[in-house]
Amino acid sequence: MPLDPAPAAPSRRDLAEHLVRTRIAGDVATSRENNLDHYRALAAGDRYYWLGLDFGDRWSDPSAVLELMVERCGVVADPAHLSGQDTIGPQLTLDALDRMADVLRKAAENRSRVLLATGHPAGMFAVHHVLAAALREAGCTVAGPAEPLYADGGEVRQLAGVFMLHRGGGLVHTHSPEPMQRVLDALERDGEPLPDLVVADHGWAGHAGSRGIETVGFADCNDPALFVGEAEGSIRVSVPLDDNVAPQLYAPLTAYLLTRARLPRPA
What we know:
The protein is α/β, with parallel strands linked by helices and 267 residues long. The chain is built from 9 helices and 11 strands. This is Phosphatase.
């Protein structure tokens, strides 16, 4: 049972307008300075920005990272644009949602084992918990070990079918791949099958992709690793969006994704 009902699905045009109006895409809150800092850090080999993936020295040129982010995320193409506003292309968001929907539909048809997780509990949990309920209703198994797990000084918790990190009395934002590593290692240790599909973000998605699990995810324009992973084939789909707007603003996007994937709308 989802925490909030899913609204009626918008048309592609209406959703594009909603994405821009709410700054999920279009002119987003993440600054150009922040984006470029993260692209340079990924290129310099800072593993914090690799989100659990392994790029070796293949992406050591920051200009190549920027070119990829222009292509897959829709950031400003001009390399001389060094500060101020940056962007996410709403049509790229919609195209990626359509690709993600294809993967979710096939998972439902195959009654797959699916694992969902988020490093943005204050934002993206609003999407993931509805997807978890819809996939379960469609006949999928929403996977996860039952025993307590610990990572990064906190406890890994599953709420409404979604894994998140709990620390200091609250659910916390994390880029770390360690919580997903703990979850997957626990499944293997218990003799349980690994999930057929992971739906996640940040290091949760990156580590799953590094283990060869089919992974679809959501990523902001300052998180280039999942887009690089998509380009290299370790991430199946990476949807570009601002991953930390007010949670209710994602509801039309979630409804669109459910409809495109032909998943039931949880009551």
